[in-house]
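Dear Dr. H.,

I hope your travels went smoothly. While you were away I took the liberty of generating a structure for the chain from your last submission, since the lab meeting agenda had it listed for discussion. I wanted you to have the full record in hand beforehand rather than looking at slides cold. The sequence, exactly as received, is reproduced here:
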Amino acid sequence: MGTPSKTERAAREAITEAAAAATSAAKAAKRLPKKLAAGLEEYIDEARDAADASKKKIRRTPRKVTREAERAIQRLERAVAKAIAAADRKARLRAEARRAADEADRAAKRAAVEAAEAKSLKKSARQAEKAAARAEAEALAAEQALAAEIGEPADTTDSPAEDAAPAADTASDSAAVTQSAVDLAALTVVQLRERARQDGRTGYSRLTKAQLIELLT
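The corresponding predicted structure, in token form, is as follows:
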């Protein structure tokens, strides 16, 4: 046997590369989803076939052997790159789907908490409304009880009868004032304030009992 020609050496290198490409692709296929890995089998077999060229074929048609090996390598590399890209895309979409699902779950939990808080607030509002209604009713009842307690006191501040003497002496006036003060002293502060209101007085709401009596006499 003579020394291999340049074309034979190129053919041998090509089939060695094809065999290596087939081995590498087979390892990559194991890391891919089954469906994508199955799609590589055809190209892996093609590269192995190209690498399995006989010595006789290499001597007779070295250029053809080289072309077939290079073609098989290119097809296999493109197929592997496409499968890996598809697997990466699928993994990315799955990760995004998981993130979306997690976010949806968190949103659902937040919504549930907010709904519970809203329900609690509505309940508190209803309770406050009922309490306000009770307070209003109690205030009205108290006002009515106070009015019943005060009653409608007789008007003791009217002017003397028309047939009375036009001029009274100082002693009579003093006695009338004293009697009026005694009558007023028998009233409560609430009754005195009511009397002041009936008389059209002003500024009596903060006065003491003594001050009210002085105001009314």
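Two observations you may find useful: Confidence is low (pLDDT under 50) at residues 152-165. The chain is about 80% helix and 0% strand.

With kind regards,
E. W.
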